[in-house]
Design a protein that fits this description.
The complex is a heterodimer of chains A (428) and B (325).
Chain A lengths: L3 E8 L4 E7 L2 E6 L8 E4 L4 E4 L1 E6 L12 H10 L2 E6 L10 H14 L3 E4 L15 H6 L6 E2 L9 H10 L6 E4 L12 E2 L2 H6 L3 E2 L1 H18 L3 E3 L5 H12 L4 E5 L1 H5 L21 H13 L4 E2 L28 H10 L6 H16 L16 E11 L18 E11 L2 E5 L2 E2 L1
Parallel strand pairs in A: 1-4, 1-5, 6-7, 7-8, 9-10, 10-13, 11-12, 13-14, 14-15
Antiparallel strand pairs in A: 1-2, 2-3, 5-16, 16-17, 17-18, 18-19
Chain B lengths: L11 H17 L14 E6 L4 H13 L3 E6 L11 H10 L4 E6 L4 H7 L6 E7 L5 H15 L10 E5 L6 H12 L3 E5 L15 E3 L2 H4 L5 E4 L15 H8 L3 H4 L7 E3 L12 H4 L6 H20 L20
Parallel strand pairs in B: 1-2, 1-3, 3-4, 5-6, 5-8, 6-7, 8-9
Helix pairs in contact in B: 1-5, 1-11, 2-11, 5-6, 5-11
The chains are: A alpha/beta (428), B alpha/beta (325).
Protein name (chain B): Aspartate carbamoyltransferase
InterPro entries (chain B): Asp/Orn_carbamoyltranf_P-bd, Asp/Orn_carbamoylTrfase, Asp/Orn_carbamoylTrfase_sf, Asp_carbamoyltransf, Asp_carbamoyltransf_Asp/Orn-bd
Pfam families (chain B): OTCace (PF00185), OTCace_N (PF02729)
Chain lengths: 428, 325
């Protein structure tokens, strides 16, 4: 296996040093390293981060290979600096059996661009009626630890309680898509001043917050582990902050788009901005940034949601919910959190690598860049800028809300267990 | 202006030009020959994704009186999941050489997509989109109010207009609230709290839950229809309670000022939001609204498609000084 010498890299933004990678692990760190036969990668001025871990990715395979495949989605992930992604269960067929999760796991291994950890459905067919075989998925070759009906909320409080209790047997976590269904029937955008004007059915903050509050209480009651997906409102941040102050085992994520974009964009009626939960107000954006900075929100997760062109090139109400995220996440985090001074690069490593790996119980990822650790490393040029081109993305879909925007930063290289998946900003 | 998508896009000058032009068109209705050559050779497509016989007929009559060729395209129930997409429909109409597309759609914002998504170069006229807007209805309402309340030649400045009923789901209410404010009127939306939109406090209009307190001050009362599908969704306890609290009946009509007119965009549910004796009373201008609708739509089509030439030659019209340049 080829050895790599990353010269002059700034680990988590610290002073430049050399990193030697051999046999899949970090074998040496220090200035002036040399190694016979090692391929030298000039990392001067680049920041070295631990390989990013996404707890919330839609790879669409099996079933919607027109939107994304495990191959294309993991290429996008590698280009975005990710070395591991959790693939959501809302495929067709749904990932609610050991067979489907093992298939997705195997497709990820074969693709080889990053590790794929399937998320198991909480309920059979995401129907919210009976528990899927959570234990079988946990015991399968895919070793599922994260369970979610994402896209749908486990709304039935008894079913949610049972799921939280049941996963304690194998240290699982329920990742809840918090959306009270009756309060959001046919909801199209954030319920606010603008939804009334635009005549689009509102998705009120309370529909998210009520479920989060209920789930935090249930989690405390049964002594289990809850992860809150895509927190989007100021009220949700407050509730999670309160639950954590009680010492309850609750973690939460925020998506890059909720750190940057607001519901004002819906006034264009361009469905590229249609996402679930919806883009919220500027005050909500401020609150989720603050929550991510102070640790109330543990991680950034992309909710990468590819959709074919025809599902976005239509009326707003007819369009699908969701936007691409993998190839732009780190840039959005840099712009909203680092360049604004809210967190440093160590904070980025915590929120995009260490913490998501801990929540997902992924042992080989989310490790510090240190001698003896698995060589999952991203080299990132924070001084670069780039204009986002939808057509230039590795994803099979084009539904990025950032097309035409100039974003800071660029992933130069990604290493997965010592092997480059991306070099010079291109797939290796 | 290329499209008419929202009443909010109209400046006061735009709106007054349309109303003045509609006045000329309205005069034409009293002539033996009701047809003008203004849009000869132009094609107007009525693209209706939702049933609305009266709006379609009104636009059809308007286009034909201007000598345009009219194509009616009923695509009811069509959606991405059920059939041809709006995009492909737009490409088809573009290929057929439609100069204007009059679109009625169940989705709020569909006319915006049609105008702005790059699918078509046609002029787009919003004939009602979802629960968003219905700008030509607001224009015909303003035209009707002007004829009754501003017959001295003034405008609607300071006139008090009450809009009563299901504001939440009403595109008519949204467009009227925007246009009437532009024209200087004072708008009060009267509705049970469940049927007022979230954030209505930012619309710049008054709101009230109490119809009886609003009626004596109003110069015009516009009753909105309550759709049947709302009746079993807990917006209000029962049809009877709704009628008692928000219906316009003879007792309430008696509290109106002498000059106050009663309006309704239709179709009415008699006995629900308005009683038959009110709908058929002398105050009711509901039938006249229909007549004015054709004139206003002629004005809109003419101004969007006809260019800058006056619709009616100066030698033909008695109101030369008001003829738009």
């Amino acid at each position: 296996m080829t050895s790599y010498l990353l010269s002059g890299a700034r680990i988590l933004g610290a002073e430049p040093t050399d990193i030697l990678i051999a046999d899949g692990v970090v074998s040496a760190i220090g200035t002036g390293l040399t190694a016979d036969g090692a391929e030298v990668v000039d990392a001067t001025g680049l920041i070295a981060l631990p390989g990013l871990v996404d707890l919330h990715t839609h790879l669409r395979e099996p079933g919607r290979e027109d939107a994304e495949t495990v191959e294309s989605g993991t290429q996008a992930a590698a280009l975005g600096g990710f070395t591991a992604v959790h693939a959501m269960a809302n495929t067709d067929p749904v990932a609610d059996t050991a067979g489907v999760v093992e298939q997705v796991h195997r497709l990820g291994r074969e693709a080889g661009h990053c590790d794929v950890y399937p998320v198991g459905a909480v309920t059979v067919g995401l129907a919210g009626e009976q528990l899927a075989e959570l234990g079988a998925m946990a015991d399968s070759a895919a070793r599922v630890r994260v369970f979610s009906d994402d896209g749908k909320c486990v709304a039935d409080p008894v079913l949610m309680r049972r799921a939280l209790e049941y996963v304690k047997a194998f240290d699982g976590v329920i990742a809840q898509h918090a959306q009270e269904p009756r309060l959001t029937e046919d909801a199209q955008m954030n319920e606010g001043e603008l939804s009334g004007r635009l005549g689009l059915r509102g998705w009120p903050a309370v529909a998210e917050e009520a479920i989060i509050a209920r789930d935090c209480l249930l989690t405390a009651h049964v002594g289990s582990r809850l992860h809150v997906c895509h927190v989007s409102t100021a009220g949700s941040v407050e509730i999670v902050r309160w639950a954590k102050s009680k010492g309850w085992n609750v973690t939460a994520e925020v998506c890059p788009h909720h750190l940057l974009l607001t519901d004002e964009l819906a006034a264009t009626y361009d469905p590229i901005y249609k996402v679930n939960p919806p883009l919220r107000s500027a005050a909500d954006v401020e609150a989720v940034r603050a929550g991510l900075a102070d640790g109330t929100l543990d991680i950034v997760a992309t909710d990468h949601a590819p959709h074919p062109h025809e599902d976005k090139d239509c009326e707003w109400q007819a369009a699908a919910f969701g936007m691409l995220g993998l190839e732009t996440a780190l840039s959005i985090v840099q712009q909203t959190m680092v360049d604004s001074g809210l967190i440093d690069w160590e904070g980025v490593a915590e929120r995009l690598s260490y913490a998501p790996a801990r929540i997902g119980r992924v042992g080989d990822h989310g490790r510090p860049i240190a001698v003896g650790e698995p060589a999952n490393i991203v080299l990132y040029d924070a001084d670069a800028t780039r204009v986002i081109e939808a057509g230039a993305m590795a994803s099979l879909s084009r539904n990025t809300p950032y097309a035409g925007r100039e974003l800071p930063g660029r992933v130069v290289a990604t290493f997965l267990r010592g092997r480059p998946t991306v070099l010079d900003g291109k797939l290796a | 202006m290329k499209h008419l998508l929202s009443a909010g896009d109209l400046t006061r000058d735009d709106a007054e030009l349309i109303l003045a032009t509609a006045g000329e068109m309205r005069a034409l209705a009293d002539r033996p020959i009701k047809k003008l050559p203004a849009l000869r050779g132009r094609t107007v497509v009525n693209l209706f994704f939702e049933d609305s016989t009266r709006t379609r007929m009104s636009f059809e009559a308007a286009a034909k009186r201007l000598s345009a060729d009219v194509i009616n395209f009923s695509a009811k129930g069509s959606s991405v999941s059920k059939g041809e997409s709006l995009k492909d429909t737009a490409l088809t109409l573009e290929a057929m050489g439609a100069d204007a597309v009059v679109v009625r759609h169940w989705a709020s914002g569909a006319p915006h997509s049609l105008a702005n998504a790059g699918w078509s170069r046609s002029t787009v006229i919003n004939a009602g989109d979802g629960t968003h807007e219905h700008p030509t209805q607001a224009l015909l309402d303003a035209f009707t109010m002007t004829r009754h309340l501003a017959s001295d030649g003034g405008g609607l400045d300071g006139r008090r207009i009450a809009i009563v009923g299901d504001v939440l789901h009403s595109r008519v209410a949204r467009s009227n609230a925007l246009l009437l404010q532009t024209l200087g009127a004072e708008v009060t939306l009267v509705s049970p709290p469940t049927l007022l939109p979230y954030g209505v406090g930012t619309w710049g209009v008054e709101t009230s839950y109490d119809l009886d307190s609003v009626l004596p001050k109003a110069d015009a009362v516009m009753m909105l229809r309550v759709q049947r599908e709302r009746m079993n969704d807990s917006y209000f306890p029962s049809v009877r309670e709704y009628s008692r609290r928000y219906g316009l009946n003879a007792r309430r009509m008696a509290t109106l000022q002498d000059h106050t007119i009663v309006m309704h965009p239709g179709p009415m549910i008699r006995g629900m939001e308005i009683t038959a004796d009110v709908a058929d009373s002398d105050r009711s201008v509901i039938v006249e609204q229909v007549t004015n609708g054709v004139a206003v739509r002629m004005a809109v089509l003419y101004l969007l498609l006809g260019g800058s030439e006056p619709a009616i030659g100066a030698d033909e019209t008695p109101t030369t000084e008001e003829t738009p340049a």
